[in-house]
């Protein structure tokens, strides 16, 4: 079942440092110059990724140049933050640079429903509350209503003014207390437990399938084949199989729509989805680039065994075993598409349209049907108890009686 496309405005930043961006900004890259580049330089110097007092700092705002040192520093930042590493500063990298400037204690933190506060200080606050046993929602660096509720509960329990604002007194209390929850990150333990308790069936599950690109954004094009059309066809096949198994399935777009990442995640959040799967193919100039990869939300330094990571591994392995495509592994990323989803979210890149073998396979409708069956098996296995989970590539949904 396709849900109607719903627009959603991405949350903005509150009390942002000097650097700002908008959704229409053009990415900055080598050779660019001007005040926006100077702003990037300032952010990189604050993070000690560029030396202070260098030529970039001495130049006037209009003369600041995006040089090789800037590109190298940006690539390093993107790698560490789990972003796409291209050495260019687009909207997502701009926002990540801005958020990375904040440390816990730099400012008063509170919930603003119009312009939610974002930053590494919010991430640190969420982590600290979870360690103390308080549910502050996803650790996503956005101070939303769940974080406010967790903070108020902490303040109330420890005799502080329960105003939902993280100021000096609250910070002192947070720093004086030891960790209460052990054995993994508490919000992830809760999420895993809820999946186990919900039962091994798909009836009533809400699953959002997101075909990448769309509308005028065709993605990679090979002859008459476009990535947008190919993943839409694949999404429709997955939709049919999941629906037949009892799930309620929504697609984020039709053929002529191209929602932004914020709109796609807002759609899934509004649908109160249990799972979110985004579909893409890949492309690269290298003649050797081919295979299947999957991505889940993570910084690379947090705890593993999250539901998102588990689903990313399940779906990738099912596709690889059933199709023979090359296995490129699963990887943590902080892309907003994964980060802002309030449910386990995975992006699956099903082969390289730029590779002749992968392209030939993907153009075969039988292989796309096999991929859809693999996704169904992975979703079903996600809800099975460990002792009942069959080997990869062997699970077949029991026929209805």
TrEMBL record:
GO terms for cellular component: outer membrane-bounded periplasmic space. GO terms for biological process: peptidoglycan catabolic process. The keyword Glycoprotein does not apply. SUPFAM superfamilies: PGBD-like, Zn-dependent exopeptidases. CDD domains: MurNAc-LAA. Pfam families: Amidase_3, PG_binding_1. PANTHER family: N-ACETYLMURAMOYL-L-ALANINE AMIDASE, N-ACETYLMURAMOYL-L-ALANINE AMIDASE AMIC. This is N-acetylmuramoyl-L-alanine amidase. It comes from Geodermatophilus siccatus.
